[in-house]
Amino acid sequence: xxxxxxxxxxxxxxxxxxxxxxxxxxxxxxxxxxxxxxxxxxxxxxxxxxxxxxxxxxxxxxxxxxxxxxxxxxxxxxxxxxxxxxxxxxxxxxxxxxxxxxxxxxxxxxxxxxxxxxxxxxxxxxxxxxxxxxxxxxxxxxxxxxxx
Length: 148
Description:
The protein has 148 residues and is an all-alpha fold. The chain has helices at residues 2-8, 11-35, 41-44, 52-68, 73-90, 92-111, 130-147.
């Protein structure tokens, strides 16, 4: 039980978790405001505005920076980790979503011509635009700074 309490009391983890939760809540509210419907997939789903991965990584980054020092080795590690997370969100995962969109369109076109597919549609909303990543990063930096 002591280890669990230590983990739950870790300020870096608290900041990262809060940033993730706020970003996910913003996705739900933005979807509700734009489409006028509640989309339960936005509660835990990836992709969309703002990037919860970027928010979480940057909250961790800033909290570590303020608590351990911006010249510390652990801050350098968090900095590199955050960069990889944001690059992946806007690069690799965004490309994956685009590929899924094209494959789903091809499946739709072929389905009407006698082809049948056992597979479900591929998830298209997995990555982020650079603006979504930036918004998540700024949100995370703010939360990390406030929680440090």
